[in-house]
Amino acid sequence: MLRRFSISLDENLLEKFDKYLQIKKYTNRSEAIRDLIRDVFVKEEWETDKEVFGVITFIFDHHQPKIQEKITELQHDFNEHIVSATHVHIDHHNCLEVVIVSGRAKNIRELHEKIKALRGLKNANLIMSSTGTDLA
Ligand code: NI
User: Fold this and answer.
1) Which residues share a beta bridge with 100?
2) Are residues 70 and 104 in the same domain?
3) Distance 36 CA to ligand 1 centre (A)
């Protein structure tokens, strides 16, 4: 059920907000505010170590000694948090791996940090996602 409420905003802030809506292609303020609130809840879940979902992506040169082995080993260490992993051979040297993960935020961050710290890793990103409904 949708409920309405009104918001009082400083004129300058509202102007900025409307500009933001234009840039982000929103057609109404309500949808933008809903998204902002959801983003805050997702962020809060990550900060309070709730059960979350994430995607870790990374690029590496598979010629780097033992790197593939280390990546596989890490993923087996975090086996219970790995939902799925996809490997793409980008070119002669580079590989891209996309790993969907779930579990406590702290563990997911730890896996991301460990992957990132591997010698030969070129780029490792963590997309922090969640349903945003697990706030106590
Ligand atoms: Ni490859």
Assistant:
1) 55, 84
2) yes
3) 37
